[in-house]
Amino acid sequence: MQALEILEKALAASGGxxxxxxxxxxxxGVADFxxxxxxxxxxxxxxxxxxxxxxFPQENVEAHRANGKVRIDATYGDNVFFKLKxxxxxxxxxxxxxxxxxxxxxxxxxxxxxxxxxxAGKEGFQTIRLADDQVEGHPCHFVQxxxxxxNVTVFGIDCSTFNIRLVQFVTELGFHHRIYADFGPADNxxxxxxxxxxxxxxxxxxxxxxxxxxxxVNEVLAxxxxx
Length: 227
Description:
The protein is mainly beta. The chain contains 3 helices and 12 strands.
């Protein structure tokens, strides 16, 4: 198979048109935060409330830049770790003193990239099939996507299910990759397949392990949530 054929199968497996062109997504769950991979009491935090709100842009030509609207909240007990918001024009980064120690790791340019796969077949994009490999023992096709701004993103796509198990790209902080697992449908209609576990790594070191417990697609998310 050529790269685009693999990507088309991945989009179909994830939910087809609805997954490729969603309006909005709301994810809620918990997460374990291990900055620099550290798990001692001075660094480890368990977020008992971790949520992502996302309004997707209709067009996307730059993988590693904030677009559309996004909000991420993390709390532990009665403590707010951060509230990160982007309203489509500007960012509002409300971070606790603890979160500010790691502020550069939360910048959008160091984290955005996954959604570009939804646009990879459009004009101005380049796709290349790379050597197959495995992700957590699952045989995967690897596809490189270069956006019109020449940002490069690599995806690992399951050879059997065509679930997207890996994304990786280079940031100002070094090599970034995420591993996705526990795939299942969103909690509402229409059909939309969501990875309910996501692990985030910088330079091969795990920074956060997120378990999404609820997923809702195409709800109306008020503009005020992102301001």
